[in-house]
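User: Please predict the structure of the protein below. I'd like the answer in structure-token form so I can feed it into my own downstream comparison script.

Assistant: Understood. Taking the following sequence of 145 residues as input:
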Amino acid sequence: MRCAVELRKELTMHNPTYPIHEVQVRVRYQETDQMGVVYHGNYFTFFEIGRTEYLRSSGSTYRDMEAEGVFAVVVKAECSYHKGAKYDDLLTIQTAIKRLTRVKIEYEHHILRGSELLATGHITLAFVDANGKICLAPKWLKIEE
């Protein structure tokens, strides 16, 4: 089993330009099924928490982006499940930017219970205007050249 430090290094290897962000959440009863295991769709909510807090930790928010007329919409979402999280588990959501271009951002997420990897997610968002047309990322995002 790989430890959390090794997993962090793995995330860093994708794109060391951007920092890795971690946030913890505790699994609530409403997020589980009858067996006390987190319902598979809720991992995407955990990924969203990771992305939102990543942006907030960098000094901005989705609200700021939307005030500029730029919206981030999910165009691709993948999750690989390794082990199930359970009611009352304390989870760590690791989020890293894998790639950031002028029109899209790709994130990678790891969900851990302690040092145990439970799920890996890959989410791609496109930047669009209020009419849903592709537009450029906000200027304050550090774009790869």
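That's the full token string. The chain has one domain: 4-128.
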